[in-house]
């Protein structure tokens, strides 16, 4: 007999199935020995992963994505922490305007932001380049860092910093000795957000990337236009592992750090 | 003046149109324990923060050990501060917390260790060095915060309501403890509180503040027995504020005609000026100085009125009575011998001249 609760449970299961079944299929098929990525599977094989490693274009795209993601994370986190400090600890004219501007990139549709930056660069007469692609990624990962770090910073009482300064620590020493360790979990989480968002991004990257440069998502996109190669399944699996394992890992690290503070 | 560890000269603090602290002059003698007392919003914490350098000053000068510190940032002022919520660094052990300030004073490692140990012994928690702050009780955190502030041998110790987060019993113990430590070290201390009993118990001098003004500066006895204003009289303890007219003056005692009550002898030594006959004045009489039947004082300076007990607030050792007399409601707190007076009892109310204090304004 169907009660309303079991109906909800059934619906929930279906929704999750709909969300995760394709992911499972991609992962399964990446181990398929068959030339054509379809069921039924004809034996297990790692040949598509080997093919990935031998595909120069994919390896290069991977390197680009990792470098881009890492740089985006470092720059975004640094700027985000500085911005959050300004927003939470200081008062200055135009503060609310700047606060809005900092968050705006996640409110504006990405494609609008992408076109706008592209047009702006065109108007400035600047050619597309890797640093500009990086700048683009920083712009739309920054709000995530700011939001996460700000929330944590608000919870860190000003008295800790005042106590450190009363004991003789200057403002910079106070930041590194007291403030940064206390907001570190949020800083790491923010950096990780920035990395995964950058690593995952396709819309902005398609507009901003200079010719000849491919990231993993744009590389997959390009490969899909020709045919659906089983290599793509393998590549998808690798990306899933990276984007799932990294947050889990850092959540573990953050929990460890927080436990030490308690 | 060099015997003042801290001096405030015409200090003013404004936030936009709002004046948090009005023209304040204050000298804190070396080695003394001074309390800034007042209700919340009176400017006492702002004053403390200005001395600390955590808040800028709008006008005037602040001198610490004779040196003008207006533009000296907090980390160069050599002050020890204990915050209301202790502000122990949660990611550092007790040892690291206490040693924090020594790092910035280039103290050699073995000397630093010795001083941390001594500080922890002084606050009676030498065994806690390796704990994290979260593993300590509120009272213990309080002591560690104090140890961290005094280990750097500050010129001035600033305490911002350090006892208000503790429960009542602990607060009374810490009050004695804090005074003992302050006395042992002979360190100039500025203590901020809204709790009159803390102020009276611990201070050498009390500064009573209200709405950004200093109402009175004096020893605990002076502030309690000779309030300089209606506010001070009302803020410390339970007082009856009455108004009347000066009829006759004889040295330190004046004969007044109190509205509703009639003639009374009153002390005028707290006024600081000569009263004139016919002048209208206010007097303050402490509730515990109104003596009812059963507490019969002797002397020739006693004024007596009839009154009726309307409400009895029995508290065991003492009882607080509300009395009706001459159309006025008076408060009296008397110790109880056997049982308190009953409601509706007619009683005599007696006041000694020295307990009936004429207020300056």
From TrEMBL, chain A:
For this UniProt entry, which segments traverse the membrane? 7-31, 66-85, 97-124, 130-154, 175-199, 232-254
Query: A GO BP term, please?
Result: transmembrane transport
Q: Where in the cell is it found?
A: Cell membrane
Name all ABC transmembrane type-1 domain ranges: 62-250
For this record, an example GO cellular component is: plasma membrane
Q: Does the keyword Cytoplasm apply?
A: no
Q: Which CDD domains match?
A: TM_PBP2
Q: What is its main location?
A: membrane
This protein's source sits in the domain of life called: Bacteria
Output the InterPro entries linked to this UniProt entry: Bact_Polyamine_Transport, MetI-like, MetI-like_sf
What topology in the membrane does the UniProt record assign? Multi-pass membrane protein
One matching Pfam family is: BPD_transp_1
Work out whether the entry's keyword set contains Transmembrane helix.
yes
Keywords from the UniProt entry: Cell membrane, Membrane, Transmembrane, Transmembrane helix, Transport
Q: Which family does it belong to?
A: Belongs to the binding-protein-dependent transport system permease family. CysTW subfamily.
PANTHER family in alphabetical order: PUTRESCINE TRANSPORT SYSTEM PERMEASE PROTEIN POTI
- What is the name attached to this protein's record? ABC transporter permease
Q: Which organism is it from?
A: Hwanghaeella grinnelliae
**What phylogenetic lineage does the species belong to?**
Bacteria, Pseudomonadati, Pseudomonadota, Alphaproteobacteria, Rhodospirillales
TrEMBL record, chain B:
Q: Which GO terms describe its cellular component?
A: ATP-binding cassette (ABC) transporter complex
Reactions accelerated catalytically: ATP + H2O + polyamine-[polyamine-binding protein]Side 1 = ADP + phosphate + polyamineSide 2 + [polyamine-binding protein]Side 1
Residues in domain ABC transporter?
Answer: 6-236
The record's top EC class is translocase
Q: What is its EC number?
A: 7.6.2.11
Q: Mind telling me which InterPro entries this protein's record contains? A: AAA+_ATPase (IPR003593), ABC_SmlMolc_Importer (IPR050093), ABC_transporter-like_ATP-bd (IPR003439), ABC_transporter-like_CS (IPR017871), Mo/tungstate-bd_C_term_dom (IPR008995), P-loop_NTPase (IPR027417), PotA-like (IPR005893), Transp-assoc_OB_typ2 (IPR013611)
User: What keywords are assigned to this protein?
Assistant: ATP-binding, Cell membrane, Membrane, Nucleotide-binding, Translocase, Transport
Tell me one GO molecular function of this protein: ABC-type polyamine transporter activity
Q: Which PANTHER family match?
A: SPERMIDINE/PUTRESCINE IMPORT ATP-BINDING PROTEIN POTA, SPERMIDINE_PUTRESCINE IMPORT ATP-BINDING PROTEIN POTA
- UniProt record similarity statement: Belongs to the ABC transporter superfamily. Spermidine/putrescine importer (TC 3.A.1.11.1) family.
Its quaternary organisation is: The complex is composed of two ATP-binding proteins (PotA), two transmembrane proteins (PotB and PotC) and a solute-binding protein (PotD).
Tell me, in a sentence or two, what this protein's role is.
Answer: Part of the ABC transporter complex PotABCD involved in spermidine/putrescine import. Responsible for energy coupling to the transport system.
> NCBIfam families recorded for this chain?
potA
In Swiss-Prot or TrEMBL terms, this protein is called: Spermidine/putrescine import ATP-binding protein PotA
Q: Which organism is it from?
A: Hwanghaeella grinnelliae
């Amino acid at each position: 007999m169907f009660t309303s609760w079991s109906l909800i449970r059934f619906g929930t299961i279906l929704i999750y199935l709909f969300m995760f079944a394709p992911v499972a299929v991609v992962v399964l098929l990446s181990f398929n020995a068959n030339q054509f990525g379809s069921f039924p599977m004809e034996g297990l094989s790692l040949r598509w992963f080997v093919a990935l490693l031998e595909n120069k274009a994919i390896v290069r795209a991977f390197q680009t994505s990792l470098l881009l993601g890492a740089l985006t994370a470092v720059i975004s986190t640094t700027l985000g922490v500085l911005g959050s400090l300004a927003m939470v600890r200081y008062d200055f004219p135009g503060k609310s305007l700047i606060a809005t501007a900092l968050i705006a990139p996640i409110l504006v549709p990405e494609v609008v932001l992408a076109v706008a930056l592209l047009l702006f660069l065109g108007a400035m007469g600047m050619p597309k380049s890797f640093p500009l692609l990086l700048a683009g990624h920083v712009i739309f990962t920054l709000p995530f860092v700011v939001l996460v770090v700000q929330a944590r910073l608000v919870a860190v009482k000003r008295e800790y910093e005042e106590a450190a300064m009363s004991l003789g620590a200057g403002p910079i020493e106070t930041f590194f000795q007291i403030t940064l360790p206390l907001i570190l979990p949020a800083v790491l989480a923010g950096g990780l957000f920035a990395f995964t968002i950058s690593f995952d991004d396709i819309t902005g990257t398609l507009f901003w990337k200079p010719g000849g440069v491919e990231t993993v998502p744009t590389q997959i996109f390009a490969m899909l236009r020709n045919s659906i190669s089983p290599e793509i399944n393998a590549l998808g699996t690798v990306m899933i592992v990276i984007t799932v394992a990294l947050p889990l890992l850092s959540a573990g690290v953050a929990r460890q750090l927080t436990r030490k503070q308690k | 003046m060099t015997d003042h560890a801290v001096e405030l000269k015409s200090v003013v603090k404004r936030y936009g149109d709002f004046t948090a602290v009005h023209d304040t002059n204050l000298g804190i003698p070396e080695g003394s324990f001074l309390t800034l007392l007042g209700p919340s919003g009176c400017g006492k914490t702002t004053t403390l923060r200005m001395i600390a350098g955590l808040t800028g000053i709008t006008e005037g000068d602040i001198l610490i050990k004779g040196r003008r510190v207006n533009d000296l940032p907090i980390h160069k002022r050599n002050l020890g501060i204990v915050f209301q919520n202790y502000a122990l660094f949660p990611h550092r052990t007790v040892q690291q917390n206490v040693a924090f300030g020594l790092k910035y004073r280039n103290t050699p490692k073995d000397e630093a260790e010795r001083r941390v140990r001594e500080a922890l012994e002084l606050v009676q928690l030498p065994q806690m060095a390796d704990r994290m702050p979260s593993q300590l009780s509120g009272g213990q955190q309080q002591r560690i915060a104090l140890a961290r502030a005094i280990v750097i041998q500050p010129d001035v110790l600033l305490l911002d309501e350090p006892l208000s987060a503790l429960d009542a019993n602990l607060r009374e113990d810490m009050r004695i403890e804090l005074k003992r430590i302050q006395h042992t070290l002979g360190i100039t201390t500025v203590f901020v509180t809204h709790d009159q009993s803390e102020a009276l118990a611990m201070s050498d001098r009390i500064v009573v503040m209200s709405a950004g003004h200093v109402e009175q500066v004096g020893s605990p006895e002076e502030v309690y027995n000779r309030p300089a204003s209606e506010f001070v009289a009302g803020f410390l303890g339970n007082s009856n504020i009455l108004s009347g007219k000066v009829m006759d003056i004889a040295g330190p005692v004046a004969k007044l005609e109190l509205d509703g009550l009639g003639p009374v002898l009153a002390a005028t030594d707290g006024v600081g000026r000569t009263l004139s006959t016919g002048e209208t004045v206010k007097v303050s009489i402490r509730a515990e100085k109104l003596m009812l039947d059963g507490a019969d004082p002797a002397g020739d300076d006693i004024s007596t009125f009839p009154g009726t007990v309307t409400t009895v607030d029995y508290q065991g050792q003492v009882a607080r009575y509300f009395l009706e007399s001459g159309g006025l409601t008076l408060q009296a707190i008397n110790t109880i011998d056997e049982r308190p007076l009953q409601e509706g009892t007619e009683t005599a109310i007696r006041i000694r001249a020295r307990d009936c204090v004429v207020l300056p304004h």
